[in-house]
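Problem 12. The chain below contains 249 residues. Write out its predicted structure in token notation.
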Amino acid sequence: MAFKIKDVNAWYGEKQALKNVNFDIPAKSVTAIIGPSGCGKSTFIRCLNRMNDLVPLFRVSGEILYNGTNIHSGNLDITELRRRIGMVFQKPNPFPKSIYDNVSYGLRIQGISKKGILDKVVEESLHKAALWDEVKDRLNASALALSGGQQQRLCIARAIATEPEAILFDEPCSALDPIATAKVEDLIMALKQYYTVVIVTHNMQQAARVSDLTGFFMMGELIEFDITKQIFTAPSNKMTEDYITGRFG
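Solution.
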């Protein structure tokens, strides 16, 4: 298992956002997290690489093991954790730099400056992000000139470039049109051969299309976790069935 989540609770000040969450996320698979707005989906995914540490008054209890290591152990290097567990956000957030500089940014921060190495990683990352053919002739152009869907795939390439082991997607298609969404979905399914993928999505059809496993959250609790096909065809919990059939949410 890539992640083992044991009795995880989380709070923003006095407000409890996650309640006794327990489940395992297997490596090299796509795990979708679904549920209505405010159910704890984004809080949960941001616990996996400690992004919530940046939020004032946030606290968490329980254990999150990543490849057997407790990510809250005192001697853990958080920067290294976030390199190993990359993240792609809801809205594309390219830097106001060239396409090339966006993808190579993480490597430069690590002190890698050899052009040959940077060139190779930039090309490989853009290939994996299914963007190379669209941008190979304008790598020095501003990333901000790309379409929204291209910008999101560029952000995926940027995450890939630092050689992570897992990639977290927090509603990566919510700002994209259907054509761009389809490209990102195809990409997510292709990436699982290399990475452990966790995706938060409010779009149930998207979860059904791209994921191997699905967790349904409600009011901060994990209501059900199972193989995606099982969740969408024969859920074992009435609340899951009601949500999926549109009775609430």
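Discussion. The beta strands are 3-12, 15-25, 30-34, 58-66, 69-70, 85-88, 166-170, 196-200, 213-218, 221-227. Students who got a different answer should revisit the alignment rule from Section 12.3.
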